[in-house]
Amino acid sequence: MIRTILTFHANSINTEKIVELYRREQILAESLQLTRAIESEISVNPSDPGEILVTALWPDSDAYREWLDHPNRGRTAPELTALLDDAEIGAGRIFEIDHRVDRNSLVPSATATADLPQN
């Protein structure tokens, strides 16, 4: 499993417009519908409203490649490019996930279960 990370640093006015573009065009939802992506999110740093982080979770690098190669990926490029004209764009990064935990995967250990009060 991999996580992709992309950062932008735009002015705060364009940050709002970039996030609105992602919402209006449902870019994150589209990446999930058209590929094997597991989840995706866009975040804005509250301490620095110009900093935007876009992350996605993929089962493997081939799944991410499906999105990179998909013809729909570029459909919002002209508008996004205009909004990013003065932005600092960080290099896209890929991280291999060593392990992960979420609430659904938490299983009490036998020891922890033994220590729980019995009704």
Structure commentary:
There is one protein chain. The protein is an alpha+beta fold and 119 residues long. It has one domain (2-96): Alpha-Beta Plaits (2-Layer Sandwich), CATH 3.30.70.100. The protein has helices at residues 12-24, 27-34, 61-69, 77-83, 110-115; strands at residues 2-9, 39-44, 51-58, 88-89, 93-96. Strands 1, 2, 3, 4 and 5 form a five-stranded antiparallel β-sheet that branches. The model has no long low-confidence stretch (mean pLDDT 87).
Strand content: 15-25%
The tally of beta strands, per DSSP, is: 5
Q: Number of domains in the coordinates?
A: 1
| CATH class descriptor | Alpha Beta
Straight-line distance between termini: 40 Å
Structural class: alpha+beta
Q: Give the oligomer, counting copies of the same chain as homo and different chains as hetero.
A: single chain
> Can you tell me the overall shape?
globular
Low-pLDDT parts are none
Profile the largest sheet: 5 strands, antiparallel
Instruction: From the alpha carbons, calculate the radius of gyration and give it in angstroms.
Output: 18 Å
The CATH architecture category equals: 2-Layer Sandwich
Helix content: 25-40%
Order of helices and strands: EHHEEHHEEH
CATH topology: Alpha-Beta Plaits
Average pLDDT taken over every residue: 87
The helix count comes to 5
